Amino acid sequence: MADQTLDIERAAGILKLLGDKTRLSMMRILSEHDCCVCEFTEIFQMSQPAISQHLRKLRDVGLVKESRRGQWIIYALNKSHEYYPFVKMLLNALPSQEEKLKELERQGKRISCE
Q1: CA nearest to 56, candidates 64, 67, 44, 46
Q2: What is the CB-side half-sphere exposure of residue 95 using CA atoms within 13 A?
Q3: 62-90 residues labelled b (16+ CB within 10 A) or e (exposed)
Q4: CA distance 76 to 13
Q5: pLDDT tens across 95-109, in order?
Q6: What angle do CA 51, 55, 59 make, to 5 degrees?
Q7: How far apart are CA 82 and CA 62, in angstroms?
Q8: Burial zone of 97 (CB within 10 Å; 0-12 exposed, 13-18 middle, 19+ buried)
Q9: Residue (of 104, 90, 2) closest to 43 by Cα position
Q10: What is the pLDDT of residue 6?
Q11: Residue 103's pLDDT is what?
Q12: CA–CA distance, 26 with 66 (Å, rounded to integer)
């Protein structure tokens, strides 16, 4: 990507999408671990529909992918997205969100959907 030019309109759209603190935090968490909606609802203290809307927006542009494990849907970064190197650069500039996941583990709520 270093010698490749980004389309300014698409890059602006991605930056606008990541301009939301919740979505940006979700992406940073997903850069370290795959998660399900139930984990995000606990981390952000938001309703399942609100979390699902944030994830839908990220999925619709292809930044996030989902996989089914039984009745649960697990979300992960889409590392094959053409703008992944750009997004990764942005996420790496942010502080780790590992402590939020560790707190879920302490509460016994990490991957509570399995």
Answers
A1: 64
A2: 4
A3: ebbbeeeeeeeebbebbeebebbebbbeb
A4: 20
A5: 999 898 888 888 877
A6: 170
A7: 9
A8: buried
A9: 104
A10: 80
A11: 87
A12: 14
77: helix, strand or coil: strand
Q: Which residues of the chain have pLDDT under 70?
A: 1-4, 111-114
CB-based contacts of 65, cutoff 8 Å, min separation 6: 59, 75, 76, 77, 78
| Residues 6 or more apart whose Cβ sits within 8 Å of residue 105 | none
Encoded tokens for 32? 């370290």
What per-residue confidence (pLDDT) applies to 113? 55
Residue among 102, 97, 40, 45 nearest 74 (CA): 40
Q: What's the full length of the chain, in residues?
A: 114
Question: Which position has the token pair 């981390």?
Answer: 43
pLDDT at 1: 44
Q: Which residue has the tokens 């300014």?
A: 8
Q: Which two tokens stand for residue 24?
A: 């940006």
pTM: 0.87
- Name which of 16, 18, 39, 27 is nearest 76 in CA terms: 27
Q: What is the pLDDT of residue 87?
A: 96
